[in-house]
Automatic annotation (TrEMBL):
This is Thioesterase family protein. Residues 27-104 form the Acyl-CoA thioesterase-like N-terminal HotDog domain. Residues 135-256 form the Acyl-CoA thioesterase-like C-terminal domain. It holds the Pfam family 4HBT_3. InterPro entries: ACOT8-like_C (IPR049450), Acyl-CoA_hotdog (IPR042171), HotDog_dom_sf (IPR029069), Sec_Metab_Biosynth-Assoc (IPR052389), TesB_ACOT8-like_N (IPR049449). It comes from Actinocorallia longicatena.
Amino acid sequence: MTRFADATGIVPLGEGRYRAELDEGFGFGAALNGGYLMATVMRAVVAESRHEHPVATAVNFLRPAGPGPAEIVVEQRKDGKTASMARATLVQDGKAILDAQVTTGTLDLEAVPVYCGPAPAMAPLEACQTSGRGSAERGFPARVDMRFDPAAMGWLDGRPTGRPEMRAYFRLAEHDDPDPYVLALALDALIPVVSNTGIYGWSPTVELTWHLRALPAPGWLTVHGTGRLVSDGWFDENVEIWDARGTLVAQSHQLARAARGR
């Protein structure tokens, strides 16, 4: 079992309840990454479903989660032949950390898109750079391999583009083949798009909705993030993930709080 699979592993407790041991390696400081939490919760929902894949997930993040034991409570809302729906709550220290509504279905790995628009322009992998956010010896940066498009990294030198945007290649540090759980992590892995508007620092997600559009092929993922409005301490972030075949495999939309600008 890989580090990520182990870190998102769950143990059934019966009656829709699961135990999880949240891994400090997928956090920044005391707070764990939201995509990592989504992946862990999604495993519990899929374990309760007749279907294999979390095709639509909507999450409200109620408070930060820390490393250590947690419990996931899954409540079935619909058990259908094509799609099933469940509500899941991640609980830690007696407090709800996030609430999720997850729709599961079964996708075909061999499905051929009737239509798939072109991926946004991206610099070649060899021309991209690591984030520059500090040492990758600990925490989340040590668990992932991300190469950022230099055209979206001007904020590092005090030259933000002025547009909320971020682009990167993504894979796990252990080079696991991507699956829906890895996609959940990748959707929330980018440096906040508001960095390129001159707003830096922790930008906590309040709500995130994402769709699994296709099962990803092995290889690098390409992650594109953009925003439409930054105002009054809030911003939106829209993320698309494309796999090594050039297929759009995941889409997300989130609302987040903006850190204070420099």
